[in-house]
From TrEMBL:
Pfam families for the chain: SpoVR (PF04293), SpoVR_C (PF24755)
PANTHER family registered for this protein in UniProt: STAGE V SPORULATION PROTEIN R
Protein name: SpoVR family protein
Domain annotation SpoVR-like C-terminal: ranges: 550-601
Annotated SpoVR protein-like N-terminal domain residues: 12-347, 482-547
Natural source organism: Halalkalicoccus tibetensis
Length: 665
């Protein structure tokens, strides 16, 4: 996209930062996809944002709406896109030509960390097959999908509006996929005779009502559906509604007022949009982890390793303050703080493990026996690693560990500018020591915050408790890479739900002043309700499970033996918006072709409940009622659920069992 002289000048200036940022990322242990960087102007950036980071998408009105919203946000709200990168192999990142050099460097370091996350997180591997070298090739896939939709729209027998409406129907339920299973482009279809097709065939035979009633009665019709197995299917609730509709759904023909087979183009479009839903799912499932990971390593490279030079640092500090200071639930801030907490916690565990092996030190007397100020001094990086410049290379040469001696020799020959890029003469262990988290000023109190309970927990696994004769010997044996290695393990296997569930602790909540708040029906405003980690965690998990959207599963494709579709809302305490649910059922009806049903639980608070609660200075208890909403193409009916149906949709707690056991890290 470097199509003008100014863009080319910007690109020329960024060749060195791009090259060196990638080299630094790899020195720090990251393994990113290769990244192509593109220089774009403001309108091009807005278009790319509208297209979810790609240059080509299928024709549809939603892209224009997103483009207009982004442009207005830039113009009236002051929003600015600092970075845009897509999950592809190679990845593509887009830099706005009007950004300052400090902003460009920040974006580049941020992007390198994103590319590492894309390449190494197992949830992204669910789409690609998780094999080395099997990157997503997303740009090519989306281009093929664009051709598919364009071909349908170009068909003289198909109205463009019909194609757009079909796309609208699918997009309405695009998150109704099995996000926790590997992507399969087309599942095996169960062949099941359709009662309506059989009845239509019989009507064409000219049989009398007497013969129809005696020979082809209701019992006979139902037997024709299969091999005598249960007439209800699937056997267990199916979370991939899009695949189920693709296998068993039909289109609703408004002229005949009957279901008819989908046209080939309709199945092709459904297949394409389902594939895109699976492709984008990991990005939504790991928003906090991914943005926090990128913010962490961006800060490491730009600030701590001096990738932003003295003239750029103030601009960079302002850049990161704006990103981390954005209001609301900020994934950059929450994610970065959690990654830093994990690093500190693992480093602390490593240090405590070594100190509890010092002769005379136990978990019971730890705080009285160990001088933590002295420990902090011992953990500080060796001066030769901490202060690197061209006049002190001999000090580095004298070190046996932490130094990349080949690079050091090149630096001595003048081939490496160590004053500008001191990290080049260090190896991974040397960089870990140079940036050891527990000696940073903001983390000096982490060791002292270890509780007796945590000390006892670590002490249970200390068997050789007289391994070291002194604190100095113990600290000399500390693995400075422990925190980074633990972060890499977690980056590989977790998603946002499991990440928050596993690592958001009371210590973290207290340290960063997190709390929950609720709408108070009695007073009509919002109130802070808890600072307990369990409550904070539950509140966050409800926002991230299934992208914060309701989990809808297929319970029966032959409900009541009438070919009706029965869906179930997996209820975890958060009620559906019934109005929106009904609008969605209208869309699903067009994809199923026959009546559709939705089981859910409705929560109600009456005016009387609110008044009584206000007088008693407490919140009203909502009434819960299980209901089934049915739509037949003309109108809605609502009925109560049976006890069995109610049990089928109630979650025991929060539905966030989202990681295979073998992935646990």
């Amino acid at each position: 996209m470097t199509t003008n002289y100014h863009a080319q000048r910007v690109a020329d200036k960024l060749e060195e930062p791009v090259r060196e940022a990638n080299a630094l990322a790899e020195k720090l242990g990251l393994e990113p996809y290769p990244v192509n960087y593109w220089i774009v102007d403001n309108d091009e950036m807005n278009q790319l944002i509208a297209y979810d980071g790609f240059q080509e998408r299928y024709p549809h009105w939603r892209w224009g709406m997103k483009f207009d919203r982004q442009r207005k946000q830039n113009q009236y709200v002051g929003g600015k896109a600092f970075e845009l990168v897509n999950n592809d192999d190679p990845s593509n990142a887009f830099l706005q030509e009007s950004n300052s050099l400090a902003d460009q460097k920040a974006v580049i370091t941020h992007v390198e960390a994103h590319a590492d996350f894309f390449a190494n997180n197992r949830w992204f591997g669910l789409f690609t097959g998780d094999e080395p070298g099997s990157g997503p090739k997303a740009a090519a896939m989306l281009s093929r999908h664009a051709r598919t939709v364009e071909s349908a729209m170009a068909d003289p027998d198909v109205e463009r509006s019909e194609v757009e409406r079909w796309i609208d129907n699918v997009l309405c339920i695009e998150d109704a996929i099995d996000q926790h299973s590997a992507f399969v482009r087309q599942r095996a279809r169960e062949e099941r005779p359709d009662r309506e097709d059989i009845e239509e065939a019989l009507s064409g035979l000219g049989l009398s009502e007497t013969v129809r009633g005696e020979v082809f009665d209701e019992e006979w019709l139902e037997r024709q559906r299969g091999d005598g197995s249960s007439e209800s299917f699937p056997e267990t609730p199916d979370p991939d509604l899009l695949a189920f509709l693709r296998e068993h759904g039909k289109q609703y023909d408004g002229e005949s007022e009957r279901a008819s087979e989908m046209e080939p183009w309709q199945r092709e479009v459904l297949d394409a949009l389902r594939a895109e839903a699976y492709y984008f799912a990991p990005q939504r499932m790991t928003k906090v982890m991914n943005e926090g990971w990128a913010a962490y390593w961006e800060s490491m490279m730009m600030a701590e390793e001096g990738f932003a030079d003295g003239n750029e640092f103030i601009d960079y500090a302002d850049h990161q303050a704006r990103v981390l200071g954005s209001p609301g639930l900020n994934p950059y801030k929450l994610g970065k703080e959690l990654w830093e907490y994990i690093e500190n916690d693992e480093n602390r565990r490593e240090v405590i493990d070594k100190l509890l092996r010092v002769e005379g030190v136990t978990w019971r007397n730890f705080h009285e026996t160990v001088d933590l100020d002295r420990v902090s001094e011992l953990l500080a990086p060796r001066e030769a690693l901490d202060r690197i410049d061209g006049d002190r290379l001999d000090e580095l040469a004298a070190l046996e560990t932490g130094v990349d001696h080949d690079a050091l020799e090149r630096a001595r020959r003048g081939e490496i500018d160590v004053d500008r890029y001191p990290w080049k003469v260090l190896d991974y262990e040397g960089l870990a020591e140079r940036h050891y988290s527990l000696v940073k000023p903001q983390n000096r109190g982490v060791l002292g915050r270890i509780t007796q309970t945590d000390l006892e927990r670590v002490g249970r696994y200390v068997l050789d408790d007289a391994l070291y004769g002194s604190v100095e010997e113990a600290i000399a044996d500390v693995d400075r890479t422990a925190g980074w290695r633990r972060m890499a393990e977690i980056r590989e296997s977790h998603n946002d739900v499991t990440f928050i569930d596993a690592f958001l602790t009371q210590e973290f909540v207290d340290r960063h002043d997190y709390f929950t708040y609720e709408y108070a029906h009695a007073t009509g405003d919002y109130r802070a309700t808890s600072t307990d980690a369990a409550d904070v965690k539950k509140k966050l998990l409800l926002q991230f499970t299934n992208f914060g959207k309701p989990t809808i599963e297929v319970h029966d494709g032959n409900f009541a033996n009438r070919n009706e579709l029965l869906l179930g809302h997996r209820y975890n305490g958060v009620a559906l918006d019934v109005g929106q649910a009904k609008q969605t059922l209208v869309r699903v009806f067009e994809l199923w072709g026959r009546p559709v049903n939705l089981m859910t639980i409705r929560k109600e608070v009456t005016d009387k409940d609110v008044e009584v609660a206000r007088r008693r200075n407490r919140e009203p208890e909502p009434t819960e009622q299980g209901i089934r909403i049915r739509y037949d193409g003309e109108g809605f009916e609502t009925s109560e659920l049976t006890d069995e149906q109610l049990a089928a949709i109630e979650a025991s707690d929060i539905d966030y069992d989202t990681k295979p056991e073998e992935w646990l890290a």
